[in-house]
Design a protein that fits this description.
Helices cover 34% and strands 18% of the residues. It is an alpha+beta fold. It has one domain. Helix 2 (82-92) packs antiparallel against helix 3 (101-120). The longest helix is centred in the last third of the chain and has 20 residues, at 101-120. The protein is globular and about 45 Å long. The chain starts with a helix and ends in a 7-residue tail after the last helix. This is DUF4346 domain-containing protein.
């Protein structure tokens, strides 16, 4: 099979639409701090409802998947590279804020994408 950038992107786009269970320990908002040369990841806690929805532990309200939400993060992790950020989150932070393997794999992929965008000057939008 002849793989092109477009074909690989189509595979990833299709996989991005699949269902994944939410991590009961929370979620991350990833962004670039270009002035500091850092990849940043804000960690937010949540509770998973019986319906499988993320709920704000303080208000009991469902956290929407899209749009702006005013919540306070628990921690901001930063790193110059994807590996440095992964070491801080998965190896140095106890207890680890990530409890599901698929969530850890997703974060690793996103941190690499963010690192590439940081180095190349491309825009980074979290998947």
């Amino acid at each position: 099979m002849d793989l092109t950038v477009e074909k690989l992107a189509a595979i990833d786009d299709k996989l991005s639409g699949r269902h994944i269970d939410l991590d009961p320990n929370g979620y991350f908002i990833i962004y670039l701090d270009r002035d500091a040369g850092l990849i940043s990841a804000k960690h937010f806690t949540n509770v998973i409802s019986e319906q499988g929805l993320a709920v704000d532990p303080e208000t009991g309200k469902v956290i929407p998947a899209r749009g702006k939400v005013q919540r306070t993060h628990t921690t901001v992790f930063t790193g110059r590279t994807a590996k440095e950020l992964c070491v801080k989150i998965f190896e140095e932070t106890q207890p680890c804020p990530v409890t599901l393997f698929d969530h850890a794999a997703y974060l690793g992929r996103e941190f690499v994408r963010a690192e590439v965008a940081l180095v190349t000057g491309q825009e980074y939008i979290q998947d």
